[in-house]
Amino acid sequence: MKKKLNAILLTAALLAGMVAMSSCNSAANNPTGSGNPPAGSSSVEHSDSSNAEYTLIAAHVSTEDHSFHTGMVEFKEQVEERSGGRIAVEIHANGELGGNEDELVQKMATNTVDVIISAPSFMAQSVPEADLLSLPYLFQDVEHWERTMDGEVGQQISQMVEEESGIFHVLGYFRDGIRSMYTVDPVESMEDMKDLKFRIQNSPTQVAFWTELGVQPSFVAFNEIYQGLQNKVIDGAENSYSQIYQQKHYEVCKNVTETEHDVATRFFLISKSKYDAMPDDLKAVIDESAALAVAAQREADAAMNDEYKQLMVDAGVNFIQIDKTPLIEKTEHVRQEAAASMGLEDMLNTINSLKK
């Protein structure tokens, strides 16, 4: 475990330097209307932490209009009230402390941030089993996702993350909408996907899935997608309607193909060392506040899906319905093989058994 942690920390340090250089370059070329805050702007929600025993630095990559921020704000308000000011929470939105979630994961490993939201694919660098949740078409619908993540499977994955990483304590599971693909040119069938330069998260399971469908995976950072689409570095990407709209990707990418391939899971995490250092009464405050934050985030996420789709329709975005059956059938072996490679065949069977 010690060797594994040292390796993670060394990798984090090296990557942090690389990301910092990349961020400087991309900031100079950031397009107007890209959804990212202009240089010098601040998206920090401060607290008076002068009397606090603990200050938590919380960060996420999305805008302040996103449901992630709703959840973070609920967490902050509940924690500060329930702790009587003994804990203060400072929220950094808009990718202010890291433009991609893997950077936030690395910063938590080096104790730079304390509370983050991360996709499973970025957690997989330290806990490979987390990447099971990145598998497209793993979940039938939102209700199936909730039965899975709020039940035994979610508990098992949380335990794996905490024990294998030694770095993260799972507070709960946020949801980032239902993801579909969006492209510069229309995609109406699997045949149209062939050879598309397509931005995905850097995950073995996602690489396997999208490669099977014929696309050429690309790993553009989240805060550089707009520029990548605008400059035709990539032909498309995939995300939830709220992210497509709030990041303004629809301005340069007018076609959304409703693949609905992922009910997107996000880990809501706190630094394990920070959590473990707190007395039991404050740990209880953190846990109770996190449960309320999860509920608030999911409620906001559900409301945003239809709202942002309609806003994009009004803006002239073309929504294309596609027969998902061929996509699901062609990639079934990807899900089976991924679960087998992780030793999670039983977990996949449990997830499938929860379908209705």
Describe the model:
With 356 residues, this protein is α/β, with parallel strands linked by helices. It has helices at residues 2-28, 67-82, 101-109, 120-123, 142-149, 152-165, 204-212, 225-230, 241-246, 272-276, 280-314, 325-330, 332-342, 345-353, and strands spanning 44-45, 54-59, 87-92, 115-118, 168-183, 197-199, 216-218, 236-239, 255-271, 318-320. Strands 1, 2, 3, 4, 5, 6, 7, 8, 9 and 10 form a 10-stranded mixed beta sheet that branches. Helix 2 (67-82) links the parallel strand 2 (54-59) and strand 3 (87-92). Helix 2 packs antiparallel against helix 11 (280-314). It is globular and about 60 Å long. The relative contact order is 0.16. Mean pLDDT is 88; it is low at 1-42.
Please specify the SSE layout and strand pairing.
Blueprint: H1 2-28, E1 44-45, E2 54-59, H2 67-82, E3 87-92, H3 101-109, E4 115-118, H4 120-123, H5 142-149, H6 152-165, E5 168-183, E6 197-199, H7 204-212, E7 216-218, H8 225-230, E8 236-239, H9 241-246, E9 255-271, H10 272-276, H11 280-314, E10 318-320, H12 325-330, H13 332-342, H14 345-353
Parallel strand pairs: 2-3, 2-4, 6-7, 6-8, 9-10
Antiparallel strand pairs: 1-3, 4-9, 5-8, 5-9
